[in-house]
Design a protein that fits this description.
The complex is a heterodimer of chains A (378) and B (626). Chain A is mainly α and 378 residues long. Helix content of chain A is 70%, strand content 0%. Chain A has one domain (10-91, 113-368). Chain B has 2 domains: 59-244, Alpha-Beta Complex (Penicillin-binding protein 2a (Domain 2)); 249-298 and 309-592, DD-peptidase/beta-lactamase superfamily (Beta-lactamase), CATH 3.40.710. The chains are: A mainly alpha (378), B alpha+beta (626).
């Protein structure tokens, strides 16, 4: 069955792209555009237009990435991880030099966050690792230790920044990928026990403001102007939306600026206010469809690297959506995680779409026996 | 390879199985969110709907007034001026341009300005106010308020603007404020206010939490268009607290005047008893008022990238090799380790040989036989090569740290650097190489890897002078607590102190020019050169171009008998340590002593046990405590 086949032509590759997945991203981005149009009081400025343009650029990047041979991404996996790690480690050094004065600190915002690069580099590096590792060794402790370190080092570096959100994403992604790669369940049980045992230590190691964030979460009334303010206002917006919502551009909470960060992290509360429970169910259905289709993509891939990057990309979508919606509905403390493809802001969109591009390349080429399990990258 | 195919097939099955489990977990997560939304939006709708319907409650944040920064006698170095600004809320205005045109009859608004305001309003939500003019005159304010009912969407608000007094003399100490770059959701709500300014440098940044205060809240009932119906509840803001500094505005100005004769230099004077910083000047400097009142981007870039780095506070951020001033550390470490006795003589032939290499003394003719006292007096290199070799690097490093080098003190000037006190562990950690014997010699005379800040050098001087582990403070202390004694024998400290006295007052001393003059208190000190080039070409230092010349460092304290002030100065690229730096120390110490004496006669300062007070007018707690 492993007959060598000629490489696909670009047209053949285009046909092999999973277009329904891309359609789902378009639907989600459109929801974003409509909502951003509404929150700016019926205007494409300042957010809706840029959001749309950014998404179209990101979509083009996904397609372009999908056409690149999988071998290229496999080769780039470890270097990308190494670069991301190095930059994460250098953040404290460069952070010192950032002069904070007046408005033109904006100049510094051209810089990007290494933690974002790490989000897909980690997935790629773990997939690369398990592509190399023979199946019978996956369960041996020596071979479990190295991916654990690959995950924990960036987690610790981002915790020091401190960026609790990114650290959590790394941890969840790492656990999910190791689980999918077939690490025996006993390890996860041991990790769970260790994690629970370490809770008191973690609590005492938290920064004051992080501890306060959790306390405020447990009792929002404690800090009506800080984090508690966001949760309270968001809940009012959602609750007043009811089943069918107040209607497009009719959300009083959002129109009157009561919901902070409404165009970024809290955009879901605007959707919930204007389109109600129905609107949010539709939004969640769109995400569920996207994630389910990507899981199916992973099943259909024969290449282990492809399988894992696709599953990793799907999982990162899930983590973002789940944490964001749980935060907006007051189920978890406020962490700065946006609603993917819907929230305004280029960082998360770029990160997730690059992950999707990687996954799509895996899907396009991963069913090609040439780069199958016994390829040259063992 | 059937085995392998089987293994792969099994792996495929495992992957499918596990991704189903993961998918199941994700579905559970979505169901949880869905259930939560059902609760919030369907079951509890009756609870939330009234909160958003009809008249809503708007919670506004009331800005606290930033605390002032005062000098030691209570004169403001930074305070606030109330200014009024006019804003427009686009969502409340029917026709923004027409409205602004009408406002233009009251305020001077050009067409260009109106276009710019309209442009800015498009970049944010229509319901957020846009500033149309700041710093309104009283006349403009009155007219705007009078016509407010016929100008829907126009509002006036009062805010505070930071004001600085003292120009360049206080720039590096006080620092400046700037806009909030970004804030997280759990940051202080005050940071969300567009007018909020936070400390970026100096005391403004270091004492941010004290100065800022706590925001108040105002609950307002608003109608569907966002217009205020009535105020429901007001919690007044808690204004920021004033910070009283230990420096004096007049003395700062006087020291700056003297310092401006040098191109790039730093000086810091510390109260030996309390650790309070009496004067802190770094030239070139900057005027915080110019930055706070809205400096243009071009001007800012010029300041930030200028070659002589005016924004760099050299006292706490400048790191220099301490040169011969470090011999105080080596001397104390050698005495403490018992490897050199006070009377022991070591011969200096002008160079020192170790491991096939020759290390020169600054005086290539040699100093002859020297005791430790004489070696400190003339800062002989060979003596301290031998002392360092006998003591060993780890004991030297430990002594340096006990004297305050190689650490930051977080006392309120945020740009503090730690410097470097090298030892075996440091070298292994940074170069992954073992420590070399020759490096001990170089460290022993304050060259090589050693880096110190002027603040640390002043602290070292104060600790040697007092024998106590004092800590720096930029805040005026309200009560004096005595610092713990250093773990050195008084006899050893006395030898070092007398060596420093000799360096200033005996013939052949390294810094004779630091003497204050007849009838003035005795000074003890040491001079050092931070070598920038290889020692071999130091021969004609003055012929080198300015940026390649060595830095001159002088440390000193006075009066010798009852130590009161410790000083450290650095003149960058000065070449010969004695030439410009010692007179600078002399002049600054004279300024500090004169200032400290106030109107009292000079004769009180020497010999008597009373501590000369600093400043005027205020009662001095240090005096009553001592």
């Amino acid at each position: 069955m492993r007959t060598s086949r000629r490489p696909f032509t670009a047209t053949a590759k285009l046909l092999r792209i999973h277009w329904p997945v891309l359609l789902a991203t378009c639907v989600l981005a459109a929801i974003g555009t409509i909502t951003l149009y509404s929150v700016s009081g019926g205007s494409f400025q300042p957010w809706a237009e840029r959001h749309t343009l950014r998404f179209l650029v990101a979509l083009a990047i996904v397609v372009a990435m999908a056409l690149v041979r999988l071998e290229v991404w496999i080769k780039l996996s470890y270097p990308a991880y190494a670069i991301a790690l190095l930059m994460l480690a250098l953040v404290p050094v460069f952070g010192v030099e950032a002069l904070g004065a007046k408005r033109w600190i904006e100049i510094g915002q051209l810089s990007f966050q290494p933690s974002e690069l790490m989000k897909f580099a980690l997935v790629a590096a773990l997939a690369r690792y398990y592509l190399w590792l023979p199946t019978d060794r996956v369960g041996r402790w020596q071979y479990v230790l190295s991916p654990v370190l690959m995950v924990l080092v960036p987690v610790l570096l981002t915790l020091k920044q401190p960026d609790l959100g990114s650290a959590m994403v790394f941890l969840a992604l790492g656990l999910a990928l190791m689980f999918l790669a077939g690490v025996p369940r006993a390890y996860f049980a041991v990790a769970a026990v260790l994690a629970i045992a370490a809770l008191p230590v973690v609590w005492s190691g938290l920064h004051d403001y992080q501890r306060r964030r959790i306390e405020v979460f447990l009792d929002p009334g404690m800090d009506p102007l800080g984090a508690g303010y966001h949760i309270t206002q968001s809940k009012i917006a959602l609750g007043s939306g009811g089943i069918s919502g107040k209607g497009f551009m009719q959300g009083t909470q959002s129109q009157l600026d009561f919901v902070p960060e409404k165009h970024t992290d809290f955009i879901a509360s605007i959707i919930g206010e204007e389109w109600g429970f129905t609107g949010l169910l539709f939004l969640m259905a769109a995400y569920a469809a996207l994630i389910a289709m990507m899981t199916a993509m992973a099943w259909r891939s024969e290449n282990r690297y492809a399988q894992l990057v696709i599953a990793g990309s799907a999982t990162s979508f899930f983590i973002y959506v789940f944490v964001n919606l749980a935060m907006v509905t007051g189920l978890v403390p406020v962490v700065g995680i946006p609603l993917p493809l819907v929230s305004y802001g280029g960082t998360a969109m770029t990160t997730l779409m690059i992950g999707l591009g990687l996954a799509m390349s895996g899907y396009v080429h991963g069913r090609e026996p040439r780069s199958g399990n016994l390829g040259p990258f063992w | 390879m059937p085995d392998r195919d089987d293994a792969i097939r099994e792996r495929e099955r495992q992957f499918t199985r596990r991704s189903l489990i993961l998918g199941g977990a994700q579905a559970t997560g979505f169901l949880l969110i869905g259930w939560r939304l059902f609760n919030l939006q369907v079951l509890e709708r009756g609870h939330y709907a009234p909160l958003a319907d009809e008249n809503r409650i708007d919670l506004q944040i009331l800005a606290p007034r930033r605390g002032r920064i005062l000098d030691d006698v209570g004169r403001p170095l930074a305070d606030n001026r109330e200014i009024f600004s006019a804003t427009v809320t686009p969502s409340l205005a029917k026709d923004l341009r027409a409205l602004l045109a009408r406002v233009g009859q009251i305020l001077p608004l050009t067409d260009g300005a109106i276009a710019e305001i309209v442009q800015r309003s498009k970049k944010q939500s229509r319901s957020r106010p846009v500033i149309i003019a700041t710093d309104l005159t009283f006349d403009e304010l009155a007219k705007l308020n009078l016509f407010a009912p016929s100008l829907p969407g126009i509002a006036t608000e009062a805010t505070w603007r930071r004001r600085y007094h003292g120009g360049e003399s206080i720039g590096h100490v006080v620092g400046f404020v700037g806009s909030v770059d970004r804030y997280g959701v759990d940051d202080d709500a005050v940071l969300r206010l567009p007018d909020t300014r936070i400390g970026k440098r100096g005391v403004e940044a270091g004492f941010e939490s004290v100065l800022r205060g706590t925001g108040g809240t105002q609950k307002i009932e608003v109608d569907a268009r966002g217009r205020m119906v009535r105020t429901l509840e007001t919690v007044e803001p808690v204004h920021g607290q004033d910070v009283t500094l230990s420096i004096d505005a007049d003395l700062q100005t006087a020291v700056l005047d003297r310092m401006q004769r040098e191109r790039t230099a730093a000086a810091v004077v510390i109260d030996v008893k309390t650790g309070e910083i009496v004067a802190l000047v770094s030239v070139p400097g900057f005027d915080p008022a110019a930055i706070a009142s809205g400096i243009s981007e071009a001007e800012w870039r010029k300041l930030a990238t200028a070659e002589d780095k005016p924004l760099l506070n050299r006292v706490v951020s400048g790191q220099y090799a301490p040169g011969s001033t470090f011999k105080i550390v080596t001397a104390l470490a050698a005495l403490d380790a018992g490897v050199i006795s006070p009377d022991e003589r070591i011969s200096c032939p002008g160079h020192y040989k170790l491991g096939g290499r020759t290390y020169p003394c600054w005086n290539s003719a040699g100093h002859g036989e020297l005791t430790i006292h004489e070696a400190l007096r003339c800062a002989c290199d060979v003596f301290f090569y031998e002392a360092a070799r006998r003591t060993g690097i780890d004991k030297i490093a430990a002594t340096a740290r006990r004297l305050g080098l190689g650490a930051v003190y977080d006392f309120g000037l945020t740009e503090e650097k730690a410097g470097i006190i090298p030892d075996r562990d440091w070298k292994r950690g940074n170069f992954n190489a073992p420590w070399m014997g020759g490096e001990t010699l170089l460290t022993g005379i304050g060259q090589g890897y050693v880096q110190t800040t002027p603040l640390q050098l002043a602290l070292m001087t104060a600790r040697v002078a007092s024998g106590r582990a004092i800590l720096p403070s930029i805040e005026k202390k309200t009560h004096s607590t005595e610092s713990a004694a250093l773990p050195f024998q008084t006899a050893h400290l006395d030898i070092v102190r007398k060596g420093m006295l000799g360096a200033v007052n005996e013939d052949g001393g390294a810094i004779e020019n630091a003497r204050l003059g007849p009838g003035r208190p005795d000074v003890a000190g040491q001079a050092g050169t931070a070598t920038l080039a290889a020692r071999e070409i130091v021969a004609q230092p003055n012929e080198r171009p300015h940026p390649k010349r060595d830095h001159a460092i002088v440390i000193a304290y006075t009066p010798f008998d009852v130590p009161r002030y410790a000083i450290a100065t650095v003149i960058e690229h000065a070449s010969v340590s004695d030439a410009p730096a010692a007179p600078l120390v002399r002049d600054i110490l004279n300024l500090v002593l004169d200032h400290g004496d106030g109107s009292r006669a000079h004769k009180n300062t020497t010999g008597e046990s009373t501590v000369p007070p600093r400043g005027t007018g205020e009662t001095h707690t240090s005096e009553t405590a001592g």
